[in-house]
Inverse folding.
């Protein structure tokens, strides 16, 4: 990557949005994720999903968060990121089903220079996933540290 293309703290502005790309969710990945990390019946089996309040097999919410993180990595990998103090809010708005195409977007909510560490600032981000019908399926608010230009 060209160093001139790296995003630093000063490159983020309130209201700025970044399109993150799209991820197609498959039945196999839903089941594989659930087997390892969230083995609830409606994530593992079509019949159990049909009998659930969701009316079919759905992805784990944590699988959906992982898909968002994977899309966010494209932005983070071209930035001067310095980690994160944490996520403040995660909301699951709609179930994610096999065949859904999830598109990610991150919007800058706040930028704040550190008062104690002159080499960095904090950016508050709202990251969201939308399905192929434009319905929001996930939102997540969290902060990230970014290095300042020297």
């Amino acid at each position: 990557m060209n160093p001139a293309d790296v995003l630093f703290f000063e490159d983020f502005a309130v209201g700025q949005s970044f399109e993150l790309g799209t991820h197609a969710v498959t039945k196999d990945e839903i089941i594989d994720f659930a087997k390892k990390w969230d083995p609830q019946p409606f994530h593992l089996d079509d019949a159990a999903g049909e009998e659930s309040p969701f009316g079919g097999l759905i992805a784990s919410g944590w699988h959906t968060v992982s898909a968002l993180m994977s899309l966010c990595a494209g932005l983070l990998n071209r930035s001067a990121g310095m980690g994160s103090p944490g996520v403040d809010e995660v909301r699951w708005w709609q179930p994610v089903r096999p065949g859904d195409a999830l598109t990610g977007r991150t919007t800058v909510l706040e930028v704040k220079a550190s008062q104690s560490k002159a080499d960095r600032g904090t950016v508050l981000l709202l990251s969201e996933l939308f399905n192929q019908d434009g319905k929001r399926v996930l939102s997540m608010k969290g902060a990230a540290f970014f290095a300042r230009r020297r």
Observations:
- The domain at 3-147 is CATH 3.10.129.10 (Thiol Ester Dehydrase; Chain A).
- The CA atoms of residues 68 and 104 lie 7 Å apart.
